[in-house]
Protein: RNase III domain-containing protein
Organism: Leersia perrieri
Amino acid sequence: MQSVWTEPHAQDAPPGFVPAMCPGEVAAVESLLGYEFGDKSLVVEALTHGSFYYPYRPGVTYERLEYLGDAVLTCVVSREVFVTYGQLQPGPLTRLRAANVDKEKLARVAVVHGLHRFLRHKAPNLDGQKSFVVQYSDLQAIGHERVEI
């Protein structure tokens, strides 16, 4: 089996070496979010897929932030559906929460707001998924989505 670290410069690169995200891109993301990050490296980390480092040694990716964000989002949405739908039983509450803390739904939100343009990756399949999400978002905008409770 051939190693993925076949390029000579990849062997010498420090762990996590990757071209920097320009300050203008970080500022554009902050503008889209309406939030200024004290630690700009969080923006870069949140938008960096593991494939972006190839052929260099793996570095920091979005996955640790995703772990934390999933927990926070689940907590916030759980509280919101619990308070908003006070008469619903746990089963429907769970389905409603799941419908709103859904990978595809969150991807559509990112596309609608233009965040997908800043994803840092080298995975062709992600481009295909982004294309699907963009098309699905267009359908949603004209009313072709309905969530059953």
